[in-house]
DNA sequence: GCCATGCATGACACCGGTTTCCGAATCAAG
DNA sequence: CTTGATTCGGAAACCGGTGTCATGCATGGC
């Protein structure tokens, strides 16, 4: 390779070729090299090839810091997330990475704590300091309007992921949780279930509201009533799901199916059923939401709703990178039901 | 705030105060402002205060790109990981973030695919392009020596996470998997188990080797033999765990306990046992490894080995940021056994 | 009273790109 | 052969910081 002097600790000194080296060696000006890099059309093919050869020879790679400084913007996308669901966050990262692969963008992650009082200040510091190109905001903190306002104030582009209309199309990628829950209920009803209970998510979450409303609407659509004993609150954790299921299963007329607002709570519900020696799915059908890793790995494998998070991530990243075309990109994504083994036809009690 | 003109799209133009503005307003030179920012000791208290007041007034925040360019290094840490275990990756991110909170560092993530032929080139492109301050490498790709060599070649600092001595102390943070598996075996033996089987991890993984060796050593220590029918290969996936368990459970003299080299395979084994109507833990005890989310959420909750990943991440980030003191930082971390409900005393068959 | 000393500060080049503006070369038309 | 348009390439300023070195000033020792 090109002359690298070694440091004591075995690392090469910053002896990388610069645009000046390329210009000197190929006998053109910096600007011409810059044009080659940026694929400017007004260049003779001959010059371009000559410079490109030198670039290869020298192993030249443009310095992103210098570019960022000169162009007044960098190529860093931020990911702001709280962390209820590791698999989801990681899948999202995956999707974003797919979108920015082969570009000069990189992804900077920043977990935040939605319960900390200093959360907004934290994010403010982060954004001011790093001057990111833009940020992607994951639920549940994507539902925080103050956060979006902060981004606006700081001049930071953003896209929110959500389960309802939180913002205009340019700043939002959403899944239709409500409709998806409808499918889940339809499926249960088609299997003959009439006494269906809901384990709801935490009040503050938009996704929880949507899933609850989707459930209630679908039940109403089928002409099924949902008594007060048929809805139990949860907070998206395993334990809350177990506790909620215990309450539901105590009811005089036991439900034959439970829809849990996420997989973790469904797993908790399964746990509760097993302790009461209620067979799943023979005596109790169960549907979850999110299709996290856990859904496929419990017994019986959980029927659940999968939302296309990787596609959504890709779309979100794309919106962020190409703000001009953001509104053309799809904003709404459809989830679908993954049928596994936790649902069976209802039996008469 | 300081005069911001708005763009059509509602975002503030890059009208942030620069070091020049601060210098002009406070009547000192750029350099002096720079000294204030960098807490240089040779400054009169009076000047410092005056400049600091102006900085506050103007809401000035130094531009990291400019700093990076001038200083020849940026403040970005990279995280290279393959993705068998979302919870682990995310916990690791958390630990790193803890370490760099309140510093100017940020974390850039980069999932890579260890099975892709172009993996090394991929990483090379990434490192050359982004010029990170350094990278953290997670297992299993941390075991790839070519990757470490690449970092050296490119002059990129690195720290590898691993389960064995992969590198020198300055570039490694390791967990003692071998010893931890020993504890797991001890526990099983103390419960009266003698016929203990192993579901091994994939050949290529150092962690798998360590866990296998730890198992064999511990069994030998207890004077217990491990016949060929007592070790089944797996590849860290749920399905491979199930298949391995099926083979083990077919043996003429069935094992009374199985140690699986990770939780996912343990979950698979549980699945297999259930299909054969073998009660866990009554008729079969099970221990996993990693203490991922799944361990606590299956039934029965899985006894498993937890390694202190957040502490390890913190140490790794610290080593990366302070290379001079890297060797003083701890490199070896102890894992411990989390006792849940998947182990019971052995019964005579 | 003078010069060496030390401390606080400033002038200026520099990091490695991009952008603006302008000049040179080429070529067709007059 | 000259003119004008067009294409291509270069010089220099600029982005916003940091490093080097020089300078002014107060201090102190002789």
Task: Give a short synopsis of this structure.
Two copies of one chain form a homodimer. The first copy, chain A, has 349 residues and is of the alpha/beta class.
Give a verbal description of the structure:
Two copies of one chain form a homodimer. The first copy, chain A, is α/β, with parallel strands linked by helices and 349 residues long. Helix content of chain A is 43%, strand content 14%. In chain A, α1 (19-26) packs across α2 (30-37), α8 (177-190) packs parallel to α9 (206-221) and α10 (238-250) packs across α11. Chain A has a six-stranded parallel sheet with strand order 2-1-3-4-5-11, with helices on both faces. Chain A contains 13 helices and twelve strands. In chain A, α9 links the parallel β6 and β7 (231-233). Chain A folds into three domains: 3-62, lambda repressor-like DNA-binding domains (434 Repressor (Amino-terminal Domain), Orthogonal Bundle), CATH 1.10.260; 68-176 and 309-335, Rossmann fold; 177-307, Response regulator (Rossmann fold, 3-Layer(aba) Sandwich), CATH 3.40.50.2300. The model of chain A is unreliable at 1-14 (pLDDT under 50). Chain A has helices spanning 19-26, 30-37, 45-58, 64-71, 86-100, 119-130, 145-154, 177-190, 206-221, 238-250, 263-275, 293-297, 309-321; strands at residues 76-81, 106-111, 134-137, 157-162, 172-175, 196-200, 231-233, 257-260, 285-287, 304-306, 332-333, 336-338. Chains A and B meet through α4, α5, β2, α6 and α7 of A and α4, α5, β2, α6 and α7 of B. β2 of chain A pairs antiparallel with β2 of chain B. The structure holds a DNA duplex (30 and 30 nucleotides).
């Amino acid at each position: 390779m090109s002359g690298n002097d070694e440091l004591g600790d075995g690392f090469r000194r910053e002896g990388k070729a610069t645009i000046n080296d390329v210009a000197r060696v190929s006998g053109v000006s910096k600007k011409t090299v810059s044009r080659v890099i940026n694929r400017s059309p007004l260049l003779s093919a001959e010059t371009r090839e000559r410079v490109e050869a030198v670039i290869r020879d020298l192993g030249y790679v443009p310095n992103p810091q210098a570019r960022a400084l000169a162009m007044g913007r960098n190529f860093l996308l931020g990911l702001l997330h709280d962390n209820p669901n590791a698999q989801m966050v990681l899948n999202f990262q995956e999707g974003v990475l797919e979108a920015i692969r082969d570009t000069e963008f990189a992804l900077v992650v920043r977990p935040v704590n939605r319960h900390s009082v200093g959360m907004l200040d934290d994010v403010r510091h982060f954004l001011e300091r790093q001057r990111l190109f833009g940020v992607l905001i994951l639920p549940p903190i994507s539902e925080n309007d103050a956060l979006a306002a902060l981004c606006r104030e700081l001049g930071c582009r953003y896209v929110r992921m959500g389960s309802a209309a939180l913002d205009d199309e340019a700043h939002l990628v959403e899944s239709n949780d409500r409709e998806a829950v409808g499918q889940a209920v339809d499926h249960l009803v088609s299997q003959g279930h009439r006494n269906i209970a809901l384990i709801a998510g935490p009040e503050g979450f938009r996704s929880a509201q949507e899933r609850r409303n989707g459930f209630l609407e679908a039940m109403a659509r089928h002409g099924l009533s949902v008594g007060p004993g048929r809805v139990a609150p949860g907070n998206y954790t395993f334990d809350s799901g177990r506790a909620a299921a215990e309450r539901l299963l105590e009811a005089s007329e036991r439900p034959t199916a439970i829809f849990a607002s996420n997989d973790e709570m469904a797993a908790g519900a399964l746990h509760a059923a097993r302790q009461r020696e209620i067979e799943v799915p023979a005596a109790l059908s169960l549907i979850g939401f999110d299709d996290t890793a856990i859904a496929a790995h419990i017994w019986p494998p959980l029927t659940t709703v999968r939302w296309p998070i990787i596609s959504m991530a890709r779309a979100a990243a794309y919106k962020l990178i190409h703000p001009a075309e953001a509104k053309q990109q799809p904003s709404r994504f459809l989830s679908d039901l993954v049928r596994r083994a936790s649902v069976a036809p209802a039996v008469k009690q």
